[in-house]
Fold these 3 entries.
Entry 1:
Amino acid sequence: MKKKLLCAAMIMVMVLGTLVMTGCGSSSDKSADKDTLVVGLDDAFAPMGFRDENGDLVGFDIDLANAVGDELGMKVDFKPIDWDAKELELESGTIDCVWNGMSATPERKKSMALSDKYLNNKIVLMALKTSDTDVKKASDLANLKIGTQADSSALKLLTSNEAYDSFKDNIKEYDKYDTAIMDLKAGRIDVIAVDQVLGEYTNNNLGGEMKECTYSLGDDYYVIGFAKDNTELRDKVNDAVKKLYENGEAGKISEKWFGKDIVVFEPLED
């Protein structure tokens, strides 16, 4: 009887040990050999990833991610997320990467494993075409109401601008750029600080109702974000993006969405 109890106890210890080891695995352990890549995104960021008139997810990043999936032999699932919680989504393992026109800020370099640069961009200021508004230098913003999206690269560049103190009380943050553009059209704000790729795409759809101001906040580029310890998956995706860049497929996707090839593949500086 004692031997049976001892054996049962040993089996229980072994099972519990296995469960503990499995539960403590890193995100890279869980995703390295997966056959599905779960992409987290803001599904209202045209033309990178957004819903078309049928409710389907479309966009440059959608097409590029699917092409990477084909290269890696992986199915790609897209999961809309709260943009402010993207780091938590990565850490919890509910998504494998954030792939949605994301810039490499110093904070994201610390909290994520980032890919190389894959797309050129610029942060611009846009006003209504019918208005007299133009921004020729940063100090001009002191007299204007500025709209931008919360936790965006545009907001980061506004807050780091040398003239920030002169216009910091004029900034209004929005959950979505769509709402900021509605307020711009209604005259509740004077300019929006926005990614050039989004501003140009939206302006084309609006029939050219907006114009780009003379002054811009600075150059930008996009990267893909992974959990900090998931460098194995990051490197696999990076290699696939590089291949699509070199064989011209990424350039074709860029031509489809932007009317020009703005794809790059450049190392990310520390």
Note: Residues 207 and 240 are 36 Å apart (CA to CA).
Entry 2:
Amino acid sequence: MEHSLYAILWYFLIYAFLGWCLEVVFCTLRTGKWVNRGFLNGPVCPIYGFGMVIVLMALEPLADRPLALFVGSALLTSALELVTGWALKTLFHTTWWDYSKQKFNLGGYICLKFSLAWGLVGMFAVKVLHPPVNRFVEWMPRPVGLALLVLWMAVFVADVAVTLRTLIGLGRDLGELEKVVATLRKGSDTISRNLGDAALAADERLEEGRQALPQKLAELEARRDFLQARILDTRLFGAARLMKAFPAMKDLRHSELLAELKETLHERLHR
């Protein structure tokens, strides 16, 4: 069955929303607390939208062949999950999920258990879920559907831009925070050297360097506190939301620091 671009974009948004609902329900049942599990701020999980569009385009002709539909769904969705995980790691030096402790995993990106689960989800979606979704898209008056589609796609693109900015900012803040913390840990000797070799070359300037040391320490501590507060900001568009949504998230460049911040965030949220 051929689908128009209009229908494909609606499928993407609908399944991205349904995928977000699935993730939220799953995490809520597992943790006992509501969590916005989406990569974006809004109620969408793009990987579900892309996954279902790919499955529909490639496998809808196999709707009457359950085994082929199951295998195809498992393979296509696993490939998408693998590529997405690799891309996030390559572009942002972060991993968002980790299946390395699961049997028959590939690089921690995918594993047999979830691949089989995605195969079943794909079968259910194509045979049971998609027919009413398709009828809904066809039922909407085209002018109304176009207006809503433009609106939601504009919000989606803006959300993507904001989230990417947050990720880039998080990496930058972690890098600066790690440098500040390392300098503070080294103590006054390192800070004195950073005041300049000339300040240590003469006694009268050495005294000036010693007098400047407390101020330099205070400045570094203030900068550390500011960076920590910005990273741990729990407002809608902050990095802390991503840390809450993806507890297994790791930054490959600043793994220990991010782990400490996540522990601090966890303690604040459970006081």
Note: Residues 142-186 form the longest helix (45 residues).
Entry 3:
Amino acid sequence: MKKVLLIGCGHMGSALLTSWLDSRKYHITIIDPLKYKILKKKFSNKKIKLINNFSKLDKSASYNFVIFATKPIDLNQALVNFSSINLDKKTNIISVVAGKKIEIFEKNFDNVNNFYRVMPNMPALIGESMNCIVSSKKANLVNKKEVEKLFSYSGKTIFLDNENQIDMSTAISGSGPGFVFNLIDAMEKAAIKLGFDSKTAKILVTQTFKGSINLLIKNNMTAKELVNTVATKGGTTEAGLNVMKTRKLHQTFTELVKASYKKAKKQGKN
């Protein structure tokens, strides 16, 4: 089995960890001093190694994947703590830390060739993540396939051309679940105001979203074409879509995506 070292295990780290444990393909070691007790309790019946201090990490051990999943504000300290560990050129160093560029890791591990930035999202919890990946220039094809396989257990993977596209994907697929959940919440509240109870409202709205997404995925039509199909002239759907048009929904989404993208770029400069 290949060996994974996960540094930081918050919401995203835990989501990815669950998918790797379910695959039963990797030996996993986790370092997270702040969440050590919580993780020990949560994964007590799982075959993983938990470490609460970098000093307890076996410096002679070799890892196929070293994954940084800390908060952006904690990354520098994690790099300092980890700098004494010996890694070879075949090690895959992966960052899922929002906004942090590959060059940060290249400067700290000059004997490694394979670096990656990955932007997963929350549906990794159920194996439905959108994992956007960009690699360093020296990363070889064999290692790229290993990284792709690692993240395929948590959902769909796609390699992007450059790091700017990772920041762009942060605004779309990284932050996207939050936007979708907000839309669902708004539609559920609208249903309740019409007179439905909260349980019924949730069933109606979630199945509508699920069915619509599956139809879009399995159909060759674009989202716009499907809108035109369901919105018959003078009908109920058209009446609601006219409100969306009046309230400039498309412009609102353009602005919120730009705001998220701007924040992702700013995090990369800190």
Note: The chain has two domains: 2-163, 176-269.
